[in-house]
Every structure is written in C-alpha cells, then in structure tokens.
Amino acid sequence: MKIAILSRSPEAYSTKRLVEAGKLRGHEILVIDHLKCVLVIEQGRPHIYYKDEEVKDVDAVIPRIGASVTFYGAAVVRQFEMMKIFTAVESQALVRSRDKLRCLQLLAKSGIGIPKSAFVSTPKHVEHVIDLVGGAPVVIKLLEGTQGIGVILAETKNSAKSVVEAFLDVEVDIMVQEFIKEAGGQDVRAFVVDGQVVGAMKRTGAKGDFRSNLHRGGTAEIVKLTPAEKKMAIRAAKLLGLGVAGVDMLPTNKGLVVNEVNSSPGLEGIEKATGVDIAGKIIEYVERNEVGNE
C-alpha cells in the first residue's frame, strides 16, 4: 500500500512512529504537509497537487491535522475522500470533534457523562452562567484551544466574571465548566482505534497545575479501565465518527466523565506509558479499511 500521512511536522514523534510502523509492515509511506497542498476542484476529477506534482496512486491517508489549521486540513482530507481514498479520520468527524461545544452537545444528548458546561455570548448573563455550573471555582475554555492552551481556572466569582467578560469583549468564543475538584489534576486518556480501546493512561498535571496535559509538564502512567469505562470511550469516539481518537475522561465522585475527544491524539505519551505499539494499531486499521480491500 501507498499511505500518505498528512503532517506539518515530519520530525514529530507521532509522524516518525507512523512512518516507522508503516514501513515495517511493507508499505510505501509519504509525509505530506497539508498546508502546501493545492486542491483542484474540477468536474468529475477532483485532484491534489503537492510540491507542483499531482498526488497519485495513494491508497489511504492518515491525517495529523493541528487545531490551528483545522479548516484547510479538513478540506484536504475531504478532497482525498472525494478521490475515493480511505482516510483514518474522516473530514466531518475531524471538524465535529474540533468544535468543543458541538462535541459536548452530542455526548450529553446521548447520555454520556460530561462536566456541567455553559456557553454564553453576552456579558449580561455571566454571573448567572457561573451559578448554573455550580459556582466558583470554574474552568474557562477557549472553544478552539488545544494541549491545555486557553484553559483557565478562575478561583473566585469575581475573577471568573472578569475573565469571561474580557474574552467576550474581544469576541472570543469561550465555554464555562464546573471545576471537578476531586480529579486532583488527573485525567485518563483512552486511545481508541477502529472501535477498540488499544491503550489507556492516567495523566497527572505538573505540581500546582490543574491541567494534566503532557505538553504542560504532566506525567503519564498505564491504567486499566473497567469494562464500563472502555464502553464509554468507544461510544464517545463512535458518536463523533472517529476511527482514531484520544478520549479524555475525568474522575469524579460518580465515576469518569468525558471531558474532550481528540481527533489527532499524540502517540508519544500513550506509547511510552503503555508499551503498546499504537502506531502499528493505526496502520493495521488502515490495512483493514483500504478501499481496495472492500
């Protein structure tokens, strides 16, 4: 097979591991910077150019699309789909998961536990919104933040009000969430590939930081999920239509709740914590679903 990995960072751990795993299984691997792709929309023949050459004979695509370039990245993935090429993460699922508000709405509607959240567009309702999610402290999130960036813990009602009003004043979309104190700066990430949990880790935030992201200095260790927790992670990924997903869950007094679903989860933390060849699992998923095998 000829597999294209859409990545702007060929030296990134996740990209290098996917290249390594693909080659180990005898595949030809291309790394394509999706921002350097030219999409040609032509009647009956959608095609893509990369570095002035037409992309041909690709059997499958593994998208690694950063949050800051979701729009263009999703357009590139969609173009491959129009060319009838299998993509490990579908374009619509990518867009759906990146919209944090829509993601939580879908999860909540389907009965999956989430932190109590509120969305507001005017400063007039800020105090009421803070009360609706349980009062201070509250977590304030940018709807387009990633890796813990744009996530703020407001300890008091006044500070929460000031932060929310500041964001709304510059027309930045934010969400206000209940602060789950019992999580203690920890969360659980379940890595789902093709409807199965292939690895899970518990992440602990750096000292004094309520965020557990490894990019923010957190640490990770392997964790064993209960059957119910695995089912929750699998359901969350399926609801968003994601064949590959990192499902982040927070421990509460009532069990785990889903905090976020990541459509381009990093491989380094999960592979080092679990010892599982996650990159190989993704390549196997592509092998099972490549259009020519249908």
Tell me briefly what this model is.
32% of the residues lie in helices and 28% in strands. It is of the alpha+beta class and 294 residues long. A five-stranded antiparallel beta sheet has the order 14-13-12-15-16, with helices on both faces.
The chain-level structural class is alpha+beta
**Biggest sheet overview:** 5 strands, antiparallel
* Helix content range: 25-40%
**Strand order, largest beta sheet:** 14-13-12-15-16
Note poorly predicted spans. Answer: none
Q: Could you tell me the radius of gyration in angstroms?
A: 20 Å
* Count of separate structural domains: 3
What would CATH call the class of the largest domain?
A: Alpha Beta
CATH architecture group name of the largest domain: 3-Layer(aba) Sandwich
Q: Oligomeric form of this entry? A: single chain
Count of helix runs:
9
Shape: globular
Characterization of this structure:
This protein is of the alpha+beta class. It has nine helices and 16 strands. Helix 1 crosses helix 9 (278-289) and helix 2 (70-82) packs antiparallel against helix 3 (91-98). The longest helix has 13 residues, at 70-82. The chain is globular, with a radius of gyration of 20 Å.
